[in-house]
Amino acid sequence: MIQNIPEVKLGIVAVSRDCFPITLSEKRRKAVVEACKRLGIDIFEAKTTVENENDVLKALDELKSADVNALVVYLGNFGPEGPETMLAQKFDGPSMFVAAAEETQENLFDGRGDAYCGMLNASYNIGLRKLNPYIPEYPVGDSSEVANMIAHFVDVARVVIGVKNLKIFSFGPRPQDFLACNAPIKPLYDLGIEIMENSELDLFEAFNKHKDDPRIPEIVKQMQDELGTGNKHPGILPKLAQYELTLMDWYEKYRGSCKFAIFANKCWPAFQTQFGFVPCYVNARLASRGIPVACEVDIYGALSEYIVTLATQLPATILDINNTVPKDMYEANKDKFKDYKLTDLFMGFHCGNTPICHMKYAEMRYQLIMHRLLEPDKEPDITRGTLEGTIKPGEITIFRLQSTADCLLRSYIAQGEVIDIDPRSFGGIGVFAIKEMGRFYRYVLIQKRFPHHTAVAFKHVGKVLFDAMKMLGVDDISFNQPANMLYKDENPFK
């Protein structure tokens, strides 16, 4: 069950320029609320209609009393650009601006609101105040169209609220062998994120304090039930349960002023020799609850995984953009690859951290690469603890938010699918297909210096991610769409 994500509580405030009928804005607001209800969207209708600064204060009091954390500023008519943008400025949370279309040719004297014009003035004042609200691609519509815009805003707002109330726990220095996981943390503070960096010794001490914890048998039973016949190494479950309790207790104890938290943890090579297992299965279990645990101290990987969890309200995973699909596998499965080229394909892999709900089948196994290094020619012992199998076919979106060395935020978004064929390899793995992946690999991933880890959403959420990144102030966003966009801010995910 997903936890660790915010509940979006929407509120709508209508605005009205005092030379237009206030009743027009109020009638249109009510129609939008009714349209939202038909879509199953719960939205608080503020009764204060904003015409001036005093109305702004009244509306904010209403919103606060109703625990609203995401605001729809609705131009039912032309609207007063000063007060309406002040409302968004003083509101503590993400906001969107949207405007009413004219309903009928039969009432263009007393019933004309000119909100189409008012959005232009609103946008100018938004710029003066240096605000960054969500404005839909075409932000003017009738009540049903506006309700659909609001439905999209719910997902965007959830990402923004979650990120701005997040703490990231990290354990251990980022590995020298994976310098790609190293990135400055300054931009995290710019996003409103707290970070608590810890030593591996802190984690080891906390783990040892959980030895013989009375809750361990209960967690072991949960693991046994989840794994079923895939429980190939039952002897390692008590240590994995001890580790899971360690992380969850840390989460509760040190979340502090933040509502949500995630982890980026050192997981090799000393982890195996000191803790006595690999942590992959525990990482998968926490991810399934909305608490990503990125491996290799990949702080931005953990954040990216959390962002796609917020966007989808589904468990996510982090994988390596790992290896090519062999030509003979491509030729043998031409019917399943449809019109994908060989260069559109790659294998997404990690040791065993993908939640079991996204696996066609899954088994508790051991980390083959670590086994070769740490206990060759021996039965697996300290390398046990992976959740391995084939990833389910279906829609996916890959995404990463990353800081450059000079503290600029970049992100990429690409949509595709997992193909239903046997990858014939180890780990948690699947064959991924993304249109124009070859171009994307060369001119985005390589050209813009992105690391090997990618967050995977098991749904197409490119539009949500694009709009959320814009609201968070990320200007450099790359996609796998053809490079024919006319405008920088145009969303390519139609």
UniProtKB/TrEMBL annotation:
Pfam family, one: Fucose_iso_C
Listed InterPro entries: Fuc_isomerase_C, Fucose_isomerase_N/cen_sf
Domain L-fucose isomerase C-terminal: 349-475
GO molecular function term, any single one: isomerase activity
Entry keyword annotation includes Isomerase: yes
Keywords: Carbohydrate metabolism, Isomerase
Record's keyword annotation contains Transmembrane helix: no
Stated name of the protein: L-fucose isomerase
Species name: Caldicellulosiruptor bescii (Anaerocellum thermophilum)
